[in-house]
Amino acid sequence: MTARIVVYSLTGVTRRLAQRLSGETGMPVSEIRCPAHAGPLGLLRAVRDAILGRVPEIEVVPPIGAAEALVVGGPAWFGRLAPPLRKLLSQARRLPPVVGVIVTRAHAGSGYRIERDLASFLGAHAPGPLVLLSHEVGQPEARGRVRDYADSLRERLTPRAANLPRPPVSPAPRRGRVPVTRRDGSG
């Protein structure tokens, strides 16, 4: 089963976490880009969007393509998922299944609002997120947590591969009958 990590990172912290997870799982990384949050005033617009609950336009580079499952990630701002990640998740019905979530945040605290955001976009069976504080991402202690999360992702993805639809198998020809092939190549 092919899976892809799709991450939003304004400062690069969540991108580093995604790259570390990619190193553990072999999943390629795509990045959510938000033109409204780019440039010198981008941070101010990002804060405004987070406070007002706005979801800006985004693009995913490289595109998600043929991935059959996603791990999504981004920072938590003011206790909620960052608006560009919320925008991606608002399109969850058109995306491959989300099997994992990674979140970075500046301060410790209750993850209630993050879990509420995930449940509102992904339903009651939203995957439990890996949440790290921003200063923990580069620390050696975080490697174990990332490795454990990578192991849990592998476990989640393995049963899905077994349940994927298989290509139809044509029945074996009956004895004494020879299958006929038409000139146009169809059976």
Automatic annotation (TrEMBL):
Where are the residues of the annotated region Disordered? 155-187
User: What InterPro entries does the annotation carry?
Assistant: Flavoprotein-like_sf
> What is the official name of this protein in its record?
Flavodoxin
> What organism does the record attribute this protein to?
Roseicyclus persicicus
